[in-house]
Design goal:
Layout (H helix, E strand, L loop, with lengths): L1 H33 L5 H9 L3 H28 L6 H17 L6 H11 L4 H29 L9 H26 L2 H16 L6 H22 L3 H19 L1 H8 L4 H19 L9 H14 L1 H47 L1
Helix pairs in contact: 3-4, 3-6, 3-10, 3-11, 3-14, 4-5, 4-14, 5-6, 6-7, 6-9, 6-10, 6-12, 7-12, 8-9, 11-12, 11-14, 12-13, 13-14
């Protein structure tokens, strides 16, 4: 049964990786067909002639998205009594970013991150609580940036067309609902562990699971760790503030990229602020979409939000370059780091197992 489950999980990962790649190619083809006066060669030439300072700033800002998530997780772990170095934090972050990008509705990100955290000696219950808190702060930071965009440019929302407005409004409701849901789970997560125990009891009675009592003991231990950790978070305002700020910096770094690219193409600061404001709302509009990387939807929102500021052609260039840095580059780099990290972890545990057997 365990072998069959492992094969099924591997199949799912392969399927979503292939699906995401094909969907990315299809999205790119549709965008190019809609803008036939612009080619990939034009975009490459635009990047080559851009102001190098602002272009490099945009690339660095997109990579800070990875670093800040790692710092956020490490800050929460430290508050929970599990201090880990920044290198480990980056590995947790890249696993989350990569698998979130290639699976629908980010379903693979947290389990992948949890795998490396537990291999690093962090108990399952603590891992669950830490990732839930980080996800809640990630969601709240998106909402906070949406509110900030209204302060920067009060009329930004009204510049979008009706489909975009609907997506942004629905995204706002969804993000607030998710934040509330994570808060409830963090404080009252008993039902999760109760469901797991019921499933184990049921499989045990049907003789589909060996030694169910051992699994129940592990679940009870995870439950105890989880609640000890969640109680530690409750009322710990310095920890909550640090977690929120790291997530706020992470989202800001990503949202800044189109504005920095616009500056690299000779844009002015005033319009750069307007683009930042639009991108805050755009992020809310696509973040809840259950597609890998919200491909297609994010592109549509960016073109709609940028066109009246930059013109259609430049908006297309900005959209392609921005997605290239914030999504495709980050995902590719995250995938590479995750693969290397996995190979190192696997080798480390194989070596430890061989030593144990030889002892």
């Amino acid at each position: 049964m365990e072998k069959g489950k492992m094969i099924n999980e591997k199949f799912k990962k392969i399927f979503w990786s292939v699906f995401s790649t094909l969907f990315a190619v299809l999205t790119l083809w549709i965008l190019l067909k809609q803008n036939e006066n612009v080619s990939l060669g034009d975009i490459a030439r635009t990047a080559a002639t851009a102001n190098h300072f602002w272009l490099i700033s945009a690339a660095v800002s997109s990579l800070l998205f990875i670093l800040f998530e790692g710092f956020a997780v490490c800050s929460i772990l430290k508050g929970a009594g599990f201090k880990r170095n920044k290198t480990s934090g980056i590995l947790y972050a890249t696993a989350d970013i990569y698998f979130s990008a290639i699976t629908p509705s980010a379903t693979g990100g947290q389990p992948a991150s949890a795998y490396f955290m537990m291999k690093d000696g962090i108990p399952g219950g603590v891992t669950t609580a830490v990732l839930l808190l980080n996800l809640m702060m990630y969601t709240l930071s998106i909402v906070a940036l949406g509110a900030l965009s209204v302060l920067i440019c009060p009329g930004a929302f009204m510049t979008f067309n009706l489909p975009s407005k609907i997506l942004i409004a629905a995204g706002t409701v969804a993000q607030l609902a998710l934040a509330a849901f994570f808060m409830v789970i963090l404080k009252k997560g008993s039902f999760i562990f109760n469901l797991l125990k019921k499933a184990v009891y049921s499989l045990g009675r049907k003789k589909l699971l060996r030694h169910p009592e051992k699994k129940i003991a592990k679940i009870n231990k995870a439950k105890s760790d989880y609640f000890s950790c969640s109680q530690l978070f409750s009322g710990n305002y310095p920890l909550l503030f640090r977690a929120f700020m790291w997530n706020f910096f992470q989202r800001t770094a990503q949202i800044l990229v189109p504005s920095l690219l616009y500056m690299s193409l000779g844009g002015n600061a005033e319009n750069g602020f307007r683009l930042f404001s639009r991108q805050c709302l755009i992020t809310i509009g696509y973040n809840f979409i259950p597609l890998p990387g919200a491909m297609g939807v994010a592109d549509y929102l960016m073109l709609n939000g940028f066109s009246d500021i930059t013109g259609r052609n430049m908006a297309f260039h900005l959209e392609m370059l921005s997605r290239g840095l914030t999504f495709y580059l980050c995902v590719s780099l995250s995938g590479l780091i995750t693969l290397v990290g996995y190979l190192i972890v696997r080798r480390k545990f194989q070596y430890a197992k061989a030593e144990k057997l030889s002892a």
